[in-house]
């Protein structure tokens, strides 16, 4: 019996990999495809460890690929959730300035939002902030109605169901440990057996650079893992936050700052900070991988980044071990 050759293999069963498989299966019916996920279930890493925010496109430079992707993707995601009856909410968020020095950055965000086509943006004063979020305080804020919340694991599972309906296969517990070319095809050695495909797409998240190298591609960048840590409000305190409350981000940093996020299950998260992780898929303070740590420390790009953000990195670590400092940042 001849060995099966798939038209397409997708490595990675997070939301990106499954969405790629869904889009291909929908647009090219009859194409044979397989999704390979190393964990026993889908969406076990980045997809299942985020705060579930549907971003509006407020922050990105107008006309940039990031802005266009975020804005188009936002509406496609809302439509997908509505069509498939997935729990979601277009709840909006408040971006709050607490100091005069933040007002220029807030005005820049408003300008970017308008340029990116966000309608219904509202500039609020201190009284307006209290009307929108009675327990928040600031001197000015921007209300962004397009922001929403969703369970991205549920979205991934819904897309996976559609992949199967299109005739695609999703195989879990199938870590790829070798990739080689055989003529015009790829042969993938996985924990669940050999897989052959004509085309290959890698959506391996935190392992993307390593899997790319397995495939013979030498990317000039490397994954340097950072862990975001959250606290959750006690059930009796969840009413303090109606929707989402964000600070005005520091334009010098690649992070949005610690914030409050009401989640689709009713819980409220406070965070995250951003600390250098000593394991790529380590979600606890105690998580450690010698291989991952040595790879990070041996890469010159890490040290170039560290020189620019060393002081901020130390502050993030301090907040990681000091709940009082974390709460103080949330109050600011």
Low-confidence spans: pLDDT under 50, at least 5 residues? none
Strand order of the largest sheet: 6-7-5-15-16-17-14
How many strands, which pairing sense, and closed or not: the largest β-sheet?
7 strands, mixed
Number of strands: 18
Helix coverage percent of residues? 25-40%
Report what the structure shows.
- The chain is of the alpha+beta class and 332 residues long.
- Helices cover 34% and strands 23% of the residues.
- The strands form 4 sheets. Strands 6-7-5-15-16-17-14 form a 7-stranded mixed sheet, sandwiched between helices. A 6-stranded mixed sheet has the order 9-2-1-12-11-10. A 3-stranded antiparallel sheet has the order 3-8-4.
- Helix 1 (15-27) packs parallel to helix 5 (152-165) and helix 8 (300-321) crosses helix 9 (323-331).
- The radius of gyration is 22 Å and the shape is globular.
- The protein starts with a strand and ends with a helix.
């Amino acid at each position: 019996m001849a060995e099966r050759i798939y038209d397409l293999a997708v490595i990675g069963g997070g939301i990106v990999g499954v969405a790629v498989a869904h889009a291909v299966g929908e647009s090219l019916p009859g194409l044979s495809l397989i999704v390979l996920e190393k964990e026993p279930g889908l969406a076990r890493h980045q997809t299942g460890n985020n705060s579930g925010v549907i971003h509006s496109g407020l922050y990105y430079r107008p006309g940039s690929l990031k802005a266009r992707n975020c804005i188009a993707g936002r509406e496609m995601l809302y439509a997908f959730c509505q069509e498939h009856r997935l729990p979601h909410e277009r709840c909006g968020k408040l971006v709050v300035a607490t100091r005069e020095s933040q007002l220029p950055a807030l005005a820049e965000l408003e300008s970017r939002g308008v340029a990116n086509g966000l309608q219904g943006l509202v500039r609020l004063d201190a009284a307006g902030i209290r009307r929108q979020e009675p327990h928040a305080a600031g001197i000015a804020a921007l209300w962004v109605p397009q922001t929403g919340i969703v369970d991205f694991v549920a979205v991934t599972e819904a897309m996976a169901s559609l992949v199967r309906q299109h005739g695609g296969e999703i195989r879990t517990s199938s870590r790829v440990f070798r990739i080689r070319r055989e003529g015009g095809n790829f042969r993938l050695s996985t924990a669940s057996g050999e897989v052959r495909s004509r085309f290959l797409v890698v959506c391996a998240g935190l392992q993307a650079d390593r899997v790319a190298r397995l495939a013979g591609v030498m990317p000039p960048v490397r994954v340097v893992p950072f862990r975001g840590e959250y606290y959750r409000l006690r059930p009796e305190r969840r009413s303090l936050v109606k929707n989402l409350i964000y600070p005005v981000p520091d334009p010098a940093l690649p992070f949005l700052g610690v914030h409050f996020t009401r989640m689709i299950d009713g819980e409220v998260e406070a965070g995250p900070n951003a600390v250098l992780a000593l394991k790529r898929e380590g979600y606890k303070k105690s998580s450690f991988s010698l291989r991952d740590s040595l790879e990070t420390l041996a890469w010159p790009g890490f040290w170039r980044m560290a020189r620019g953000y060393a002081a901020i990195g130390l502050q993030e670590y301090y907040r990681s071990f000091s709940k009082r400092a974390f709460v103080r940042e949330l109050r600011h």
